[in-house]
Specification:
five-stranded mixed β-sheet; 3 helices; Trna Endonuclease, Chain: A, domain 1; 38% helix; 128 residues; alpha+beta; 32% strand
């Protein structure tokens, strides 16, 4: 199992626990803060609102985008608290993965009825 997949398993477990405890429908920022706490409690290095540099035409821009949460410098978490995830949200995460050169990301929609329904796993050149 890759390091990214090991981290991903912990992320999913933590997200399910947070959703079970708080329920759906709160502000995205609430889930972000609580999930960050849960990940750190599980001995993962995690940061929120992380500026991720991008390269464009040979130039580097230090704040290309802000990742909601980055875990162990390897996994990007994009959090939502919405009724339904749209294709544009998935495209956003895939673009984040490509630009950051990270290989695994999760779109976590805390607005879903159950967290299992709200998890979208996306990969970028990650061996399954």
């Amino acid at each position: 199992m890759s390091e990214e997949n090991r981290i991903g398993s912990i992320v999913i477990d933590a997200a399910i626990g947070v959703h079970r405890e708080l329920g759906p429908g709160l502000l995205e920022s609430v889930y972000e803060i609580v999930l960050l706490h849960e990940l750190r409690r599980r001995d993962l290095q995690a940061q929120r609102q992380v500026p991720v540099a991008i390269e464009y035409q040979g130039m580097q821009f230090d704040e290309g985008f802000l990742a909601d949460i980055v875990v162990e410098g390897k996994v990007i978490l994009e959090l939502k608290s919405i009724e339904n995830v749209h294709a544009s949200h998935k495209k956003q995460l895939l673009t984040y993965l490509k630009l950051s050169r990270m290989r695994l990301g999760y779109l976590l929609n805390f607005g879903a009825e159950t967290m299992k329904q709200g998890i979208t796993r996306m990969v970028n050149n990650l061996d399954e």
